[in-house]
């Protein structure tokens, strides 16, 4: 199933050689696994975290719950933290299962409760801003500063349908891009997207800091199930095998993979009722009507047409859609 493809020396920002790691409420030494929290200064919140120190090697950061209704990744991170022991880690593993700690306790879907901001638009954040800004700043200064590799687990939101796929960032340092592409190739998803965005998102910003990073998408509609969680965990473990050992999957293990050089994101130009023509995962052609927004009387307010041929990655599946809200996204080739 897997074969050893050594990729050369790993790019390390830090390396643990028997020393202890101090992070938030935790002090963790080699061979230890501890759970605790990372306070967000200027707020009432703390980020839950598990730190697993296996000894010398890279520091890998895993986050989930940047959007607090994206449950498969959250549950996968919880279980990975429970199941992973120090002897299985060649380096240090930091797992934060919920980043939007404000939204998760109030079921706020994507947004932070206090300021209605999307965390994945606010990185690197600010120490003097709103709750969302401060959470992003804490992740940047306390977690990205320690990470050599970064995995961010996502899903479609409660109002979205989505086909599984994975992102990495293209316009960054060549070695960072190469390693992020290798990480992405370890995931059992049909579609890979080379994002052209280097700002706002957690993995986007981390990539600009020299950290090979990926964002994995699986699941949608505010639901989760055992199969999705196990698939996320398997993908993470394959990526960790690459990070620790340089092991990549055989080419014939995921034979139907497609790479998109960028994604097109369409937001709703007006509020109304959304009527899509296709489903996530379906192919579209340039110029085709993808859906339309109508008012309460059935009058067409907006027709969304494909700007290029590609595959729908995700789209709103709720009837109502707010002005400026995400409508549809599709992967395209240049």
Question: Which SSEs are present, and which pair or pack?
Answer:
Layout: E1 2-4, E2 21-23, E3 26-28, E4 33-39, E5 46-53, E6 59-64, H1 71-83, E7 92-96, H2 101-104, H3 131-144, E8 149-154, E9 160-162, E10 165-169, H4 174-184, E11 191-195, H5 202-208, E12 213-217, H6 226-245, E13 247-249, E14 258-260, E15 262-267, E16 272-276, E17 283-284, E18 289-294, E19 300-305, E20 310-316, E21 320-321, E22 326-332
Parallel strand pairs: 6-7, 6-8, 8-12, 10-11, 11-14
Antiparallel strand pairs: 1-13, 2-3, 4-5, 5-7, 9-20, 10-12, 15-22, 16-18, 16-21, 17-20, 18-19, 20-22
How does this structure look, described?
This protein is an alpha+beta fold and 334 residues long. The protein folds into two domains: 2-258, 3-Layer(aba) Sandwich (Aminopeptidase), CATH 3.40.630; 261-332, OB fold (Dihydrolipoamide Acetyltransferase, E2P). Helices cover 21% and strands 32% of the residues. It is built from six helices and 22 strands. The protein has helices spanning 71-83, 101-104, 131-144, 174-184, 202-208, 226-245, and strands at residues 2-4, 21-23, 26-28, 33-39, 46-53, 59-64, 92-96, 149-154, 160-162, 165-169, 191-195, 213-217, 247-249, 258-260, 262-267, 272-276, 283-284, 289-294, 300-305, 310-316, 320-321, 326-332. The strands form five sheets. It has a nine-stranded mixed β-sheet with strand order 4-5-7-6-8-12-10-11-14, sandwiched between helices. Strands 9, 15, 17, 20 and 22 form a five-stranded antiparallel β-sheet that branches. α1 (71-83) packs across α6 (226-245). It is globular and about 65 Å long. The two termini are 32 Å apart.
């Amino acid at each position: 199933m897997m074969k050893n493809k050594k990729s050369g020396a790993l790019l390390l920002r830090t390396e643990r050689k028997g020393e202890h790691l101090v992070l938030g409420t935790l002090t963790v030494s080699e061979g230890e696994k501890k759970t605790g929290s990372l306070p967000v200064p200027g707020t009432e919140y703390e980020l839950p975290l598990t730190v697993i120190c296996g000894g010398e090697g890279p520091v890998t950061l895993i986050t989930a719950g940047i959007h607090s209704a994206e449950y498969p990744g959250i549950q996968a991170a919880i279980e990975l933290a429970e199941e992973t022991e120090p002897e299985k880690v060649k380096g240090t593993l930091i797992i934060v299962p919920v980043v939007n700690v404000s939204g998760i306790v109030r079921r706020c879907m994507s947004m932070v409760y206090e300021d209605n901001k999307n965390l994945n638009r606010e990185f690197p954040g600010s120490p003097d801003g709103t709750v969302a800004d401060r959470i992003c700043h804490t992740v940047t200064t306390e977690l990205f500063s320690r990470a050599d590799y970064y995995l961010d687990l996502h899903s479609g939101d409660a109002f979205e349908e989505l086909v599984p796929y994975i992102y990495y960032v293209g316009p960054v340092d060549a070695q960072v891009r190469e390693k992020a592409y290798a990480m992405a190739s370890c995931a059992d998803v049909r579609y890979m997207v080379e994002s052209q965005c280097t700002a706002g998102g957690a993995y986007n910003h981390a990539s600009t800091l020299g950290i090979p990073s990926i964002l994995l998408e699986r699941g949608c509609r505010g639901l989760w199930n055992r199969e999705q969680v196990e698939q996320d965990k398997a993908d993470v473990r394959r990526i960790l095998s690459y990070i620790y050992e340089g092991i990549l999957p055989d080419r014939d293990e995921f034979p139907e993979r497609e790479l998109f050089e960028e994604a097109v994101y369409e937001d709703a130009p007006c509020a109304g009722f959304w009527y899509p023509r296709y489903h996530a995962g379906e192919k579209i052609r340039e110029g085709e009507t993808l859906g339309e927004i109508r008012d309460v009387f059935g009058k067409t307010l907006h027709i969304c047409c494909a700007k290029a041929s590609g595959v729908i990655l995700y789209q709103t599946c709720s009837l109502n859609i707010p002005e400026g809200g995400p409508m549809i996204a599709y992967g395209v080739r240049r």
